[in-house]
Amino acid sequence: MKTEQKDKSLSSMLLLLSGFLMVYGIGSAGFENPIEWSSFPEYFSHFIDTYLDFILIGYVFICLQVAGYYELKYRQDYLTISLVSILFTPLSLFFIKPHENEPE
């Protein structure tokens, strides 16, 4: 078996294992709706108040992933791109042009 095939099979096994663990964890958590008869804005406000730290961590993680993609694809400076991404949202990276005149 080639090394590449071993890597693919190992990564797929780990992906399945982590997926099963997530499904088990969500199933056994016993989620309850804390504000059952509320409107959407009240529910959204409660969600922001309760889980703001997770939302910020997810936002920074997504920004850093997008910055890494732009670094690899367009050969941009990672630190600059990550700061622009965090401060001005990842959508701002669509307006950053790659350096056309730089040799590869």
Overall description:
This protein is an all-alpha fold. The chain folds into two domains: 1-31; 38-104, no CATH class. It has helices at residues 3-29, 40-74, 78-88. It is flat. The mean pLDDT is 79.
Features:
104 residues, mainly alpha, 2 domains, 3 helices, 70% helix
Strand content: under 5%
Q: Specify Rg, calculated over alpha carbons.
A: 20 Å
Give the number of helices.
3
Shape: flat
Low-confidence stretches: none
State the separation between the terminal residues, measured CA to CA.
35 Å
Elements, N to C (H/E): HHH
What is the strand tally? 0
Structural class: mainly alpha
Give average pLDDT, whole number: 79
Report the helical percentage. over 70%
**Total of domains:** 2
Major pleated sheet: none
Q: In summary, what is this structure?
A:
This protein has 104 residues and is mostly helical. It has helices spanning 3-29, 40-74, 78-88. It is built from 3 helices and no strands.
